[in-house]
Amino acid sequence: MAFIDKNDLLNYVRQNKLDDITDFDDTKLDAACEDMEEYVKGFLSARYDVAAIFAATGIARNPVIKMYMCDLVLYHLHKLINWRKIPEFRKERYQEAKEWLQDVQAGLINPPTLPTPTDGSLNYIKFGGNPKLGNNY
Prior knowledge:
This protein is mainly alpha-helical. The protein is built from six helices and no strands. The protein has one domain (about 5-105). Helix 5 (about 65-80) packs across helix 6.
């Protein structure tokens, strides 16, 4: 079962629009939900316990993750219909969700309610440096 379902999406789009997008085929909707769940897991897995995040059900789910997942799924479904005619606000919401996920991955945003692994499995080293200076006398 996916993290979000049709009822969650109905908070962001009307039933008739969702039926138009999916062509009354819920398998497209389920596939898009699973695809975007894997997409979000890729961003969050470096810092958070994604198994615990996506195992939550009902009101125990993180509302921000749920909101951005709905935006990503709706963008993905619009893209399947005609990628040239995606509504502008869907593009903006998709970009906002993607930027938020990138900021969480980079550690710029630290959502306090997301669970971190307790077994110490996220031991990684962040490396890098300042850009090279080209000072010449």
